[in-house]
Specification:
The chain has 297 residues and is of the alpha/beta class. It is built from ten helices and ten strands. An eight-stranded parallel barrel has the order 3-4-5-6-7-8-9-10, surrounded by four helices. Helix 1 runs parallel beside helix 2, helix 2 crosses helix 3 and helix 7 crosses helix 8. InterPro entries: AKR (IPR020471), AKR1C (IPR044482), Aldo/ket_reductase_CS (IPR018170), NAD(P)_OxRdtase_dom_sf (IPR036812), NADP_OxRdtase_dom (IPR023210).
Length: 297
């Protein structure tokens, strides 16, 4: 198998590619940027595409996927597509309609993974899996305590296959990662390269991860980019990682992550970069009783 199609097995028996293409873009960006970037990503070799109802770009992402299927570059079963249930659809009777809205936008019959975007009940998600609209179900932005609540829920039939969270060398989530591994839940990293400054959710004065001198020195040592070092770090920890870029050169470059390996000593050095810096802190949700980022992990 081509290494860029490397997958890990989820606890429900399905497989998820370890490298994914992130599609979030600020609302002011033209939609055709997402369309063209997703096409380039599929052409380059990405098979795991991550989006969400909230990103408001599923029409473009779906069009990109369907166009590459029509061209014979991929089949639907080659693509692992993730979408997410937004907060306005948390009531059980709205969960399936929320997914059906995404599927209509995408013009696809099913998604491979359906996530709760922010912490809420999982029960109605199980019905989406039963109906075949989602092959796997999981969560996003859940802390350890919230995961425990789901895992201990009476009558739970499908435990989450993954927890998608912000994760990078400045926020390495080591305790949450250990917990997830102990429960056979895959950790999926977003903001794995830090975050772009045009994202309005990000403090413009926050440290720029890819300018970190340690990361840059390591990039020079391995003759790779700082982005590739940050991505490789996650793969060697057993984390599924999303790489977001709409720059064609960077999209293609990020697939080089399978062409080298970091030494155990360098992995420890990267572990030492952790500063618990969170770029996406969802401050608008801080007053909610289920706000996930107040706990240690």
């Amino acid at each position: 198998m081509d290494p860029k199609y490397q997958c890990v097995k989820l606890n429900d028996g399905h497989f998820i590619p370890v490298l994914g293409f992130g599609t979030y873009a600020p609302p002011e960006d033209p939609k055709n940027k997402t369309l063209e970037a997703t096409k380039v990503a599929i052409e380059a070799g990405f098979r795991h595409i991550d989006s969400a109802y909230f990103y408001n770009n599923e029409e473009e992402v779906g069009l990109a996927i369907r166009s590459k299927i029509a061209e014979g570059i991929v089949k639907r079963e080659d693509i692992f597509y993730t979408t997410k249930l937004w907060c306005t659809f948390h009531r059980p009777e709205l969960v399936r309609p929320g997914l059906e809205t995404s599927l209509k936008r995408l013009q696809l019959d099913y998604v491979d993974l359906y996530l709760i975007h922010f912490p809420m009940s999982l029960k109605a998600m199980e019905k989406c899996k039963d109906a075949g609209l989602a092959k796997s179900i999981g969560v996003s932005n859940f802390n350890c305590r919230q995961l425990e609540m789901i895992l201990n829920k009476p009558g739970l039939r499908y435990k989450p296959v993954c927890n998608q969270v912000e994760c990078h060398p400045y926020l390495n989530q080591s305790k949450l990662l250990d917990f997830c591994k102990s429960k056979d839940i895959v950790l999926v990293a977003y903001c794995a390269l830090g975050s772009q400054r045009e994202n309005q959710c990000v403090d413009p004065s926050s440290l720029v991860l890819l300018s970190d001198p340690v990361l840059c020195a390591m990039a020079e040592k391995y003759k790779r980019t700082p982005a590739l070092i940050a991505l490789r770090y996650q793969l060697q920890r057993g984390v599924v990682v999303l790489a977001k870029s709409f720059n064609e050169k960077h999209i293609r470059e990020n697939l080089q992550v399978f062409e080298f390996q970091l030494s155990s000593e360098d992995m420890k050095v990267l572990d030492g970069l952790n500063r618990n810096i969170r770029y996406i802190d969802a401050k608008l949700l801080t007053s909610h009783p289920n706000y996930p980022f107040s706990d240690e992990y």
